[in-house]
Known about the structure:
Helices cover 31% and strands 17% of the residues. The chain is α+β, with helices and mostly antiparallel strands. The longest helix is centred in the first third of the chain and has 18 residues, at 34-51.
Amino acid sequence: MIPMQPATRRMIAADNFAPTEGACSCGCGLLPSDSIILAIQALVLALSREYDGRVRVLVQGGVRCQSHHQAVYAQVNAARAKQGLPPKKAPADSRHLPPSLDALDVRMEVRGDSGRWMPIPLDIVAMWARKLGCFGGIGLTEYQQDGRDIVHLDARPGRLVTW
Length: 163
Ligand SMILES: [Zn+2]
């Protein structure tokens, strides 16, 4: 049984996040850490300045309890099998998991003059994440190889890790 974070920790929820955004999608109540929410909020701000428009983040993968983590990897491996790729072992130390809970997989969009939301190229998102210096892990190319249009961002401490 994994304890939920106390509600008070959520009081610094950032502008662009609903209180339950990035929560484990199995409904167990696990929430992402403030560190990753604030880092992504900074990225939204930087991209808003770069594009001079409203930017939003679409969370494609939030934090996960162990049982949901296994389910996600079962899906990933089914997709890999279709492409004739070997299965990937679900990493036990993923930042999406407790105790870290500081990873989110995202896409980002900017609102064009017509009012339509347009995707920001993922390599631009990853480049800005790197430039800002508030992320510890940035994953892009491995997911592209899997045909998944996401950037993995996490707030691990220490030297930047990219893949
Ligand atoms: Zn869960």
